[in-house]
Amino acid sequence: MSNQPVRRVLEPVSDTGRNGLDYRELLKVSLDSLLANRLRTFLTMLGIIIGVASVVSLMTLGNGASEAITGQFSALGTNVLTIFNGRPNRGPGQSGNIAPLTMSDYKAIERIKLPIVGPVPQFSSNATIAAPAADKSSTVIGTTADYAKVQSVIMASGTFFTDANVQGASQVVVLGSSLKTYLFGSGEAVGETVRINSLACRVIGVMAAKGGGPFGSPDDQALVPITLAHTRLFAARTSDGNLRVNLISLSVIKADDIDFTQQRIQMTLRDLRKLNSDGSEDDFNVINQASFLSSLSTITTLLTTFLAAIAGISLLVGGIGIMNIMLVSVTERTKEIGLRRAVGAQSRDILLQFMIEAVVLSFLGGFIGVVFGSILPIVLTVSGTFNAPVTLNSVVISLSVSLATGLFFGIWPARNAANLNPIQALRHE
Amino acid sequence: MITIEQMTKVYTMGEIEVHALRGVNLTIHSGEFIAIMGPSGSGKSTLMNMIGCLDTPTSGRYALDGIEVASLNDNDLSAVRARKLGFVFQQYMLLPRQSALSNVEMPMLYRGIASSERSRRARVALELVGMGNRIDHRPNELSGGQQQRVAIARALAGSPSVILADEPTGALDSTTSEEIMLMLRQLNREQNLTIIIVTHESDIAAYADRIVTIRDGVVTADRKNEVLHV
Fold this sequence. Notes:
The complex is a heterodimer.
Chain A: H1 23-36, H2 38-75, E1 80-85, H3 103-111, E2 116-130, E3 135-143, H4 147-150, E4 155-158, H5 163-167, E5 172-175, H6 177-184, E6 193-196, E7 199-207, E8 222-225, H7 226-233, E9 247-252, H8 258-272, E10 284-288, H9 289-332, H10 334-342, H11 347-382, H12 392-418, H13 422-427
Parallel strand pairs in A: 3-8, 5-7
Antiparallel strand pairs in A: 1-9, 1-10, 2-3, 2-6, 2-9, 4-7, 5-8, 6-7
Helix pairs in contact in A: 1-11, 2-9, 2-11, 2-12, 9-12, 11-12
Chain B: E1 2-13, E2 16-28, E3 33-37, H1 44-51, E4 59-64, E5 67-68, H2 74-84, E6 85-88, H3 100-109, H4 115-128, H5 144-156, E7 162-166, H6 174-191, E8 194-199, H7 202-205, E9 210-215, E10 218-224
Parallel strand pairs in B: 3-8, 3-9, 6-7, 7-8
Antiparallel strand pairs in B: 1-2, 1-4, 4-5, 9-10
Helix pairs in contact in B: 3-4, 3-5, 4-5, 5-6
């Protein structure tokens, strides 16, 4: 064997004299490392994906649900005033000795000549409605022809009853859409006869579906002329010979008039009921749909907050997941850090590499999370079940929390490892 | 060329001071193949860390190719390691999920060598250690001896002044150990590489041209190896 060097295959290298990595190389090192460890990369992202996806979907669904609820009630009309029996601000059973709401109250309101549609009295009770094929116990409401205008009734077929029907106490009935389907299936109902508590009535119309309302769904109800309800269907006489009603509703023509109208009705009824003389409390309630909506919005806010709280918990759990995987993976990688330091990496190179890895993981995980979280709301919206557009709020909140967690727990342990003596890091078990 | 004069290293562990090196003098010339021997606790690992610029001495002088290492800060030490030193570890220390080629290229990243040049040098280095046909294999697809060859290629690809091998055969069987030691000697002869082996086994030290023995933090013997293992 010769002791003379044969030839140096690797000549001394001429490098740029620059220490550490440039950003392009750093990016490549980080991406290589993420791609080489796909399982670890996936597990780390999983925490971010779950956290972001649950916040986006729950917050979006919560928002959609409360808008849907509020929307349904708004569809019933915000100009509507409803007058009930009972003292304001009291629950049922505390009314004591109060005069029931009757047709004289209704006529008193009618006489004021306000710029309104209505008033419309309603007198309702449960009755069995029998059709040839099926029968059902339903709410039967006696009312006047103006009901159709105040409640914005849309007819699916046939017509609503007229003033003449009301004056003549005609034996006619208008059915809600679900009730009609129950009694007649998909067949024609108009022109058929049903028996309401064994009184034969001709079906003259079917209303289009409207959805739930505050006092039961109109889709399940049957409407008859109030005169028929008073005289032939239900017991309606009060002790002083008046005819009882359950509620009186009306809608103001201009929404601005609602407060004024409410006050006028209140004064009129107080006069009629002689409450002004002894300064008693009202023994009736005038409810403004708008104020009902505002108390409803308290409920829906509660719903949204509740869902947001659940989402926040998932985000917390996701964040702890991110933290664990990041801490474990940096501990596992302490040897790698030691090796890189030993062969010449500066602590800055290590720190930047881990920072880029954490940024890529967090952004990619966050993005996938937003996509997954949007699937359910988008499917529900497109299929028409439920209108729940993805809210910017939920995306921003969930992304920023997971990015912050991902970055912090990606960088902080890496910084500690980068500052270790390379020998200690290499010997790390 | 390495010059070490009166080097000491004192570790403080709680209240106890451990004198790991107590005044080491050593000169290593370019192109030498030298073994540093000693039992555990002798201070040979500490000396290796000093030569490898992984740690700085408490007192004394260390010059590597004219650079006074003892006074350098952390970043400068990193830069010296990147250019002047190639490390071979007992446990190979390859990045587990990356190819032999990227493992060999990795150290050159940290000294601003262009990507094409990194890749060229890594291929040449892998050829030199007989791994030219396995450049795309990952460590778990290679035997221990093959992994150590890749690690040696990683150490020499950047043409360092010194290759520092810490128990390079400690995890290998005797046949493979012999192959690795013969290969290191061949690289020393043919490529004029300066190689320092740190070991506690005299059979391994016997492959080197010069054997330095260290005990209790001082050099107790420094002799030319007369009976070369062949």
